[in-house]
Amino acid sequence: MRKLIFITGIITVFLILVFIPGKKWARGHVNYITAVDDHPLICINCHLYNSNSHLISKIVNRDYLSPINIAVSNDGKKLYVTAQDADKLFVIDVAEEKILNKIDVGHKPYGVIIDRPEKYAYVTNQWSDNVTVIDLAEMKVVDTLSTGNGPAGLSFSSDGSVLYVVNSYSNDLTVIDLAEGVEIKRLNTGNNPTGIQLSPNGKDLYITARRAIIVPYGEPMATELTLVDDESQRLRSFLPVESAYLMENIAFSPSGDLAFVTLIRPKNLLPTLQVERGWMMNHGFGVIEQNGDGRIIQLLIDEPQAYYPDPFDIVITKDGKKAFISSSGVNMISVIDIDSVRNLIAESTPEMLSLWANHLGVSSRYVMKRIPTGANPKGLTLSPDGKYLYVAEHLNDKIGIISTETLTRTGEINLSTSERVTVLRRGRQLLNNAGRTFQNQYSCYTCHPDEHEDGLVYNMASKDMGRNVTNTQSLREIGDTPPFKWNGKNQTVYKQDGMRFSTVLTRTEQFPYNDLDAISSYIMRGNPYPPNLQFNPDGILNEVQLRGKKIFERTKDNFGREIPVNNRCVTCHPAPYYTNRQPFDVSTLAVSDDSIVFDTPHLNNIYASPPYLHDGRAHTLEEIWTRYGRDDKHGVTGDMTKIELNEMIEYLKSLRGPAYESSKINIQNASMNH
Amino acid sequence: MKKMLRSTYFRITVLAVVIAGAVSLGFILRSADNSETILTEKSPSTIELPVDRAVIPSLPAPDDATKAVPVFGNWKNFTTKDGLPSDKCYCVRVIEGKVYVGTHDGLAVYDNGKWKTYTSKDGLAHNGVVSVDYSPITGDIWIGTLGGLTKWSGGKFEVFNQFNSGMPNDLVYMVICDGKDVWCTTGGGAGHYDTFTKKWEIFTEMNAPMHEPWTYGVSAGDGKIFIAAWGGGVIEYNTKTKQFRDYVDPDGFMEIDLQPDDGVVHDITTATSWSEGILWVSSYFGMSRYDGKYWKGYFKEDSGLASNFINFLRAEGHVAYMCTDNGFSSTNGTNWVTYKKNENDANGVAVVTIGGVKKEIPQSPSISHNFIIGVDGQDDVMWVATSKGVSRGEKLKL
Fold first, then answer.
1. Which of A146, A365, A405, A479 is deepest in the core (most CB within 10 A)?
2. B194 shares contact with chain A (CB less than 8 Å)
3. What's the pLDDT tens digit per position in A399-430?
4. B204 vs A236: CB contact, 8 Å cut-off?
């Protein structure tokens, strides 16, 4: 007994000796990571959910479906749903509310369309650069059609002989001859196009774009709608929609006199102090008049002190009376009374219409109702009889059913067998939700669509207005690239998204710690880069890229002189993240910048992140050196010929996400194999 | 003395002196002939056409010798008074019923009887527009300027230059569309832009058989790209094999074309054009025609060519149209039609040369100016860009 007491005492003393300093160390560690001193000391919140281990990741996470777009059969009995994270097309029996088929398609399916005879379904695979053709009688894949990079929205020509596919990453439109099954031409579009719609008269295709035209900071922004003539299959014109971006989708009134496009109006030229006054980001729709001179009128769906962020899809009832807009950032459907919109436009002078574009009070004239949905409503479709609206609840793995008569959510079709929400899923839901921003003005998605970046430059005002103008950075796979912020001021994602986030950006209560842990985990581990199919489809560099790599890694210039170690590209940008995570001065400091050094940015998928440099002054990769790096402080390039510079840039464009450079190579292979 | 005269050595020496004298005389005469070509101008009526090379037994006559060379007349001239931004016109292109004229002060577009001007304020890379082409697939217009390349698509101008893209150089001399590729020749090499992949590939003396990166003209045909390179003759690029081959003047002389019909007439070339299996090449020293097997050279002195100083040429069907510093010529390789304006009035003449026989057709008015730098035609209408506006001619029924 004494022996037992003695041993217990020894162990207790030992544990006390370990626990007290251990806890103290842990407290200090957590305080450093979170930049606060009261974050709970729960090790698994970080070390389990942020683990790089495949095994642990497999245990703590689960696969989700993430439905994004829906098509409906002519008789309304079947729904076809693209499940983005399952790489499948779900075929659903509406009456039975059950899944009839799950058809394997390519990587990250996006859009789905059914041909008129209802023989085939066409599914765009955004991460495979192709379209899957499915025989609907046999319910099996019968063909795969090549497209440009990142196929998203799709439409048939008026005679059904041609399939138009919007390439969201390569900014163009693939025109496919369906008889031959080949791409016959590729037309330019606006920046980051997604939605496409053929006008009711069958003459024009309207294509939306999400990213704005790149302009120097301070100049007004605009994002382009692209008009394509269906008969000649040529570009008709670009319509700049001023002060707006993230135009995800478009719909026509049945009479064809109006087109409606979802949009966001960012106030990126205002200091972010504006958030606490409201009206920093506004969400609404554009009305493009098809008669007359094609005016574009912008109206908001926001209200004073209540915003409805991230409008994604829009559909209009057959009688042309109502429009439904999925407000993804607040889990709502906004119902628009189109007659009221017409009346408002008719009675307003051009000056008044210009005012309405920024007016929070006018939406009460035409927003009939807000209908709550499951998490993150995205794609919408109406039943052929117009009685039901089907909603792809993207982060809820359900199809919401809304009665268009009662304007209530009357049911749901569950696509998944499990309701379990993992920490990463919770983090993703938080990132896509505006609930933690003052008056719900915006979500993380608003400036980081698809967890990437929106291409805009913001005035991130702190105590000094007009200073530190910065280009939005991508959130993809940043977990292993600390520190964060352009000047490396934040050592962790927890700090970036914690107190600082609420002080500078959301202007409301900061995330509760469990939510902070979830969103940080998702940002650090949850969103991989898309495969770089445009510039490096198979991981094998071509001759030009290999020559560029050699230049990138060179130690001597063209005159045989040794390049100082600190001025070699590869010193600061080593694989796999192409950053050494160290601060450096590359002589691109602006007079309005407080810092004197920059956090070395990672270069994975750098081709997809224009503009460049911390304040977005370089519109292309070339401009980093042709316009702003002439003093050879951002690497030695002054001795290069134009061919050599081109080759180095081709190499830079070939860089992929770190996962593709390591054991997760199967992700890219999966894309290639579809 | 007699012994000496009977000496074999003496006979050989005399024979050698005679041959050397004859050869020297030939050189002198040839040289004089050549300098006269550049420095003086003869009236067409005073030119004595030497032996037509088409009948030289060692060379086959062009098989299109019997095909007619159209004669254009009823010229209508357009200048700043008619709405052009400048009288200095660098190029002209007829595209789907509209006429695009590149001038020193912008791009002028003639549509439904009216001119409209576009400048750098509208989005052009530079006001000096020297080349225009279009993609029949997409309808996009590509505009080569003295300060970069511009794509005009869906009513929007997009600028490519050496700073914001992989373009070789901002001094663009010519642009053409070949399928999904856009080729341009510049002061810093030639390059092509793949409109699908959005990638540039450029060629200079570092990676192509060029003498230097200065490239003037470019044309496409038969799966090949033909680049007119300063000092490098013609650079042929096979778009399938991605291999180069070059055509230079085999005699290597810069001042004269010592050996006729041995290859391109000069290493300094200004334009190429491929049509119906024939490659036509212009230079400042004459013109060449290549049928894939034989080269043939043409000079002012031995053909109906207006001048050996050829700024540009374009072949349509079996006829090549040459823009020279002293008139405008067209040929099928055998017969010629050359247009010249009188010095002191608005009238001029079209000189038709068939089988060495010339016939003059008075033209009133004539082309706008004798310094011609661009040409294009469509539907029996010919447009030429001159130093004094553009001229529009109609095909005459003779």
1. A479
2. no
3. 999 999 999 999 999 999 888 999 999 999 99
4. no
Q: B168–A236: do the CB atoms touch at under 8 Å?
A: no
Q: Is residue B44 part of a domain?
A: no
Same topology, domains A2-61+424-525 and A543-673? Answer is yes
Residue A221 in this model has a pLDDT that exceeds 70: yes
pLDDT tens readout for residues A170-193: 999 999 999 999 999 999 999 999
Terminal Cα-to-Cα distance of chain B (whole angstroms): 71
Q: What is the ipTM of this complex?
A: 0.89
Q: Which of A235, A236, A619 sits opposite B164 (nearest CB)?
A: A619
Q: Which residues of B are less than 8 Å from A224 in CB distance? A: 156
The domain total for chain B is 2
Largest CA distance in chain A: 99
Higher pLDDT, A415 or A594: A415
Please spell the DSSP secondary structure of A603-656, one letter per residue: -TTGGGS-SBSTTS-BSSHHHHHHTS-TTS-SSS-TT--HHHHHHHHHHHHH--
Looking at the predicted structure, is the pLDDT value of residue A540 above 90?
yes
B164 with B62, same domain? yes
Report residue A49's pLDDT band, with 50, 70 and 90 as the boundaries. confident
Q: Give the residue-averaged pLDDT of B232-243.
A: 96
> What are the tokens at B231?
């000092």
Express each pLDDT in A76-114 by its tens digit.
Answer: 999 999 999 999 999 999 999 999 999 999 999 999 999
B41 inside domain = no
Check CB contact under 8 Å for A643 and B207. Answer: yes
Tokens coding B191: 């390059």
Q: Residue A534: its chain B contacts at CB < 8 A?
A: 197
* One domain, residues B153 and B131: yes
d(CA A378, CA A67): 8
Q: How far is B190 from chain A (nearest CA, A)?
A: 11
* Cβ count within 10 A of residue A520: 28
CATH placement of domain A2-61+424-525: 1.10.760
Chain A / chain B CB contacts < 8 angstroms: 68
Q: Which helix (H) or strand (E) holds B350?
A: strand B348-354
Residue boundaries of the structural domains of chain A? 2-61+424-525, 543-673
Please check whether residues B176 and B321 belong to one and the same domain.
yes
Residue of B nearest to A625 (CA): B163
**B182 & B69 share domain:** yes
Tell me whether residues A234 and B188 touch, CB distance under 8 A: no
Q: Which residue in A170, A235, A641 is closest to B198 by CB distance?
A: A170
Distance CA A91, CA A82 (A): 9
CA distances for B258 relative to B71, B83, B285, angstroms: 33, 47, 12
The reply to whether B303 and B220 lie within a common domain is: yes
Inter-chain touch A226–B154, beta carbons under 8 Å:
yes
B18 and B60 part of one domain? no
B195 touches chain A (CB under 8 A): yes
Q: How far apart are CA A530 and CA A230, in angstroms?
A: 31
CATH class given for the domain over A543-673: mainly alpha
Query: Quick one: tokens of B310?
Result: 């050829």
- CATH at B181: 2.130.10.10
Residues of B in contact with A643 (CB under 8 A): 189, 202, 204, 206-207
Domain that holds residue B67: 50-395
Residue B45 domain flag = no
Quick one: B32 and B142 in the same domain?
A: no
Q: For residue range A255-310, what is the model confidence (pLDDT) as tens digits?
A: 999 999 999 999 998 888 888 888 889 999 999 999 988 999 999 999 999 999 99
Same domain, B99 and B228: yes
Report chain B residues whose CB lies below 8 A from the CB of A647.
none
- Measured between CA atoms, the residue of chain B closest to residue A240 is B156
* Distance separating alpha carbons of residues A228 and A612, to the nearest angstrom: 30
Q: Is B164 on the interface with A (CB under 8 A)?
A: yes
